[in-house]
Amino acid sequence: MRRIYLIILFLLSGIFYFSCSNNEIINALNDITSNEITAKDRLDSAVAQAQRKYSSNVKLILIFGKNVEFGGVTNGRADISLYSGITDPNLIGAWLYFFKKPGTDTLAIYTPNPIPGARNCIELTSIYNFNTLLNLITDTSARNIVSGCLTSINNSDFYIKTNLDSLMDSDASMLISNSSDPVIKFNSSFIPTASHFNGGAFFTRGYGKSVNMFLIPALGTLNLPLFIQDLIGFPDDLWIVNYKKLDSVSTDYVNFIVGTTVKSDQIMSIPFYNVSSKAINLSKY
Known about the structure:
The model is unreliable at about 1-20 (pLDDT under 50). The longest helix has 18 residues, at about 1-20. It is globular, with a radius of gyration of 20 Å. It starts with a helix and ends with a strand. It has helices at about 1-20, 20-35, 45-55, 130-135, 140-155, 170-180, 200, 225; strands spanning about 35, 60-65, 80, 95-100, 105-110, 120-125, 185, 190-195, 205-215, 235-245, 255-260, 270, 275, 280. The protein is built from eight helices and 14 strands. The protein has an eight-stranded antiparallel β-sheet with strand order 6-5-4-2-9-10-11-14, with helices on both faces. The chain has a two-stranded antiparallel sheet with strand order 1-3. It is α+β, with helices and mostly antiparallel strands. Strand 7 (about 185) and strand 8 form a beta hairpin.
């Protein structure tokens, strides 16, 4: 049976070689062998479907990645395979794309079609709402940050303003949150310092590790430039990477939340403290 699969894969490869570009060949083979995708892999499909059904004026207001993989070649990807939920539904990977319908406060929500080989999205509007999303976030600190942001988004006209073509993908954002040094850190009084602690350092110890990611309209919803004096270069939108693990000593869940820029040329700076970074620690400790 394995030999038959290999023969079929070989024949398909030969067909694609003569009929497709190199990128199309790679995409087709990835469809056969993997259901691990980044946030942008289906974003264009979600946008096109939302615009086609509701209006060209729909606004992307949030991207949520549940159980995003970290480390290695799958860094920043979510495994959207259906089989992931057979033994433990909490392990299901997902990307959710939230749109606000024009002239209303109701949402259209899309997720990548998990069927192998599919490249479209399916609508979950009748299933998900903000409360459903918040219930997926088990840690208090992330819930507070995202809840405040979602409330602002739902009650105003905030939306993702970054051009989607130039938007940094989830794998690039996680690389920044994993490895940035320094990271901008601030205390409960919003006094900033440079920190050498990043996501990679946080995951050095512990177990039961998982990551959720959010793309949010940050300017006007997090209000950090208002609280942190002299913070410049704060982007309109922000990738938030929420690391969670079981502490090896207390056996309690602990969290570390990092916000990263969304374009490769963006950088946040606080000249007074001589600190610049593409990442900011939102955990405040």
